[in-house]
Design a protein that fits this description.
The complex is a heterodimer. Chain A is mainly alpha-helical. Helix content of chain A is 80%, strand content 0%. Chain B has one domain: MetI-like fold (Orthogonal Bundle). Chain B is an all-alpha fold. The chains are: A mainly alpha, B mainly alpha.
Chain lengths: 220, 213
């Protein structure tokens, strides 16, 4: 029992890591979502830059997240841009998951009936307005389960940042276990905390699903 | 980057591949086992498996690898790095695979079972000859997708000091003082591996779509 007491004594460090993970996760998911929407709008327009964006998104889908974090944290300084670990981690999360959000939205856009866009244009909606008022809301509601998966993936990928020395939840557990030598207990607590976050996310998704059903988009 | 650096990178890629490959091979079978047990609805065991799947899907691989590697000695188990890494990857991928297999179970048509039983097949024979082959075809795209996910999260094993394709870049940088080329080269190798898997997934999907279910 004394091991659990030690972990309880060290709760300050673990809670600090927990907050840091939550902030990193919340901030990166929000920014990545905005970036993903921007990517989706970018893909609406047809120009050579679209191809470049498609290539970029496909690259991100094939790369492990840690490689991107390594590129930003270890690779960029040799080009003269030095980021601290936290910023590099945040940017990596935003760019990586921005690409994934963009891809999910693109997939849903392909199966969206074209008639809607035509009807909107007939009603005098201009390019960006069609996207913002007609296309995007539907895409977001329809891709809700996939978005939920991305949120959980993103939460799990924040743990990779411990390798580039960001002081988040896993790093906190590691430092607590190495200081007091309570590996089992420290990690059990931390894994339960991750579980807690993802259960909250799942509940939020279920709630969002009811919203989607109310708007008549799916049958729950 | 010289030839030796490339050899080191290929060595790292091999480490990544054999560790994830072993985990995938065990994980696919284990996932099927978990799905079968869950379909049997054995009280208590069923709830236990639900908790396992939910926990394993929520735990970051980095945390899981560290947890297994560091807490095994306190339980009196002596795991070397590779075993701990394979164990962690397997526990993770088996949970996801179990969900893929279960979805295939749940969407399996009831009529086929009734027809097979009417033809005098036993439950066992029906599973082996009729159900499993079709389930393999329908689950394969999901399973391959999960394989590319496990390759993409395999850098987590670097945290316990395994020199995989990601960590090997640090080693090369320590000699050359140029971090960018090895990281880009490692990224290229990852893209190659995952690209092959994505291609396989597309083929598997085409095959699965041909099966009218």
């Amino acid at each position: 029992m004394s091991e659990w007491a030690i972990v309880w004594e060290a709760r300050g460090a673990i809670l600090d890591g927990f907050y840091n993970t939550l902030i990193l996760f919340g901030l990166s998911v929000t920014l990545a979502f905005v970036l993903g929407c921007a990517f989706a709008y970018w893909l609406e327009t047809r120009n050579p830059a679209t191809l470049a964006l498609r290539g970029f998104i496909n690259c991100m889908r094939m790369l492990p997240f840690l490689i991107l974090a390594y590129l930003l944290y270890y690779g960029l300084p040799s080009l003269g841009l030095r980021l601290n670990a936290w910023t590099a981690g945040l940017i990596a999360l935003v760019v990586y998951y921005g690409a994934y959000f963009g891809e999910v939205l693109r997939g849903a856009r392909l199966v969206l009936p074209e008639g809607q866009v035509e009807a909107a244009k007939a009603h005098g909606f201009t390019g960006f307005k069609v996207f913002r008022r007609i296309v995007l809301p539907q895409l977001i509601i329809k891709t809700r389960p996939l978005m939920g998966n991305l949120l959980i993936l993103c939460l799990k990928d924040t743990a990779f940042l411990t390798i580039i020395t960001v002081q988040e939840l896993t790093a906190a557990a590691n430092s607590v276990q190495s200081t007091y030598f309570v590996p089992m207990e420290a990690f059990v607590v931390v894994i339960l905390l991750y579980w807690l976050i993802s259960i909250c996310l799942e509940l939020a998704l279920k709630w969002a699903g009811r919203f989607g059903a109310k708007r008549g988009f799916e049958h729950v | 980057m010289n030839g030796q650096a490339w050899l080191l990178l290929l060595d790292g890629a091999w480490t990544t591949l054999w560790i994830s490959g072993t985990a995938i091979a065990i994980g696919v079978v284990l996932g099927l086992g978990v799905a079968l047990l869950r379909m049997a609805r054995i009280p208590f065991l069923d709830q236990l498996l639900v908790v396992y799947v939910s926990l394993a899907r929520a735990t970051p691989l980095v945390t899981l690898v560290l947890f297994i590697f560091l807490s095994a000695p306190t339980l009196g188990l002596n795991l070397d790095r590779n075993t701990a890494a394979i164990l962690a990857l397997t526990l993770n991928t088996a949970a996801f695979n179990a969900e893929v297999w279960r979805a295939a179970f749940l969407s399996f048509s009831r009529e086929q079972r009734e027809a097979a039983l009417a033809c005098g097949m036993t439950d066992r024979l029906f599973f082996r000859r009729i159900m499993l082959p079709q389930m393999v075809t329908t689950s394969l795209p999901g399973l391959v997708n999960e394989m590319s996910f496990i390759i993409k999260s395999s850098p987590a094993i670097a945290v316990i000091g395994i020199v995989d394709l990601t960590r090997v870049t640090n080693r090369i940088t320590a000699v050359t003082y140029e971090p960018l080329p090895p990281i880009l080269a490692a990224g290229l190798l990852y893209m190659l591996i995952v690209g092959v898997l994505i291609k396989l997934q597309a083929i598997a999907e085409r095959k699965a779509n041909r099966l009218a279910m």
